[in-house]
What does this fold into?
Amino acid sequence: MNGPGTPLTPAQRAALQHVRTTAVARSEARPARIDAREAGALTALMRAHARITLNFHPDRLLADGTTIAGSMARDGRYRSQYETGLSNGSRSAVPGGARDGWEERLFGGAYHAPGVRPCDRPKYGAVNLYGHPDGASPRFGSCHVRLRPEINDRATYCHGDSHAAPADVGTIDAFSCVLAGLLEERPDAAEVIAKLPYATGADSADGAAACPGRKLDEYIEAQVHGDLDLAADAEALVLDPSFRGTETGRLLTGMARRCGIAVEWHTGFVLAPDEVTAEFRGPVMVPLAARVCRSYARAGMLDAEVLGRAAASVVREPGAWAEWGTQDEMLQYVKQLWHVLVRYGRQMGEVPE
It folds into this structure.
């Protein structure tokens, strides 16, 4: 079993060291938002108590027809995009692809050395500073794994998404640039961090923490280096309630039980098709929402499970969607419709009976 102390490969150690060196050099020129003593205290709190969450869509299909949930249930591992061939961001986790290029820049070519395997690549998540029940970056998935804080030591970080070549990068022991970028965007972040540790999940008594964050663009991205064995590295699996009573839900809760990690349910998002507008993610969202609901929504509402069934149909029967575009275009549209649901959807408990 691998744990927080999992031995890293030479490539993974080199990636961490490159980001650490870059962060130290950048900090010498980066204007500080707070003094070094306060920055050190806040970083120490984050190192000990902040949680990285890995958002994912559990019902998306792998090349062999297995779902992400099925793959996770098989061996209790969380895999990188280079292993799954799937992404809820840029669909370019292939040699020579866009993600491959920005990883080469971010990690100084560490993952382009001879002998590096797809499973050696980092896994992407974000720091859930505010303890939002939908995770730190729900744009990338309806469910999430909440990692143990010990994993913070083998992660690299950037303020903003890594595809945009952010200047503010770091490791937990060279974090000042990332912290400065965060404080420029959210001056209240220092007060939030100073309250750590806070209760998480079902134990949270903080009303604010019970509200979904709906974070589509604003987060500290985290890249976790090394294997992720959920039994050792996760403290909870947080699921969307649309998967209750489904095969996906049974696979994930069974896996969590075997791994000895907690299962929590957040409030989820639901949206009627006539509530979808063209103002966000474009005009195709309006007819697509109606089409998806007609075909898959038993209750007439969009939710994560309904969108998952639409995504599976796009893969299994692309001809049924040919009038909408190619398979890749359709998968992009379904992804964008999920973004609409995250931004505008009501929490499930807010839906009138």
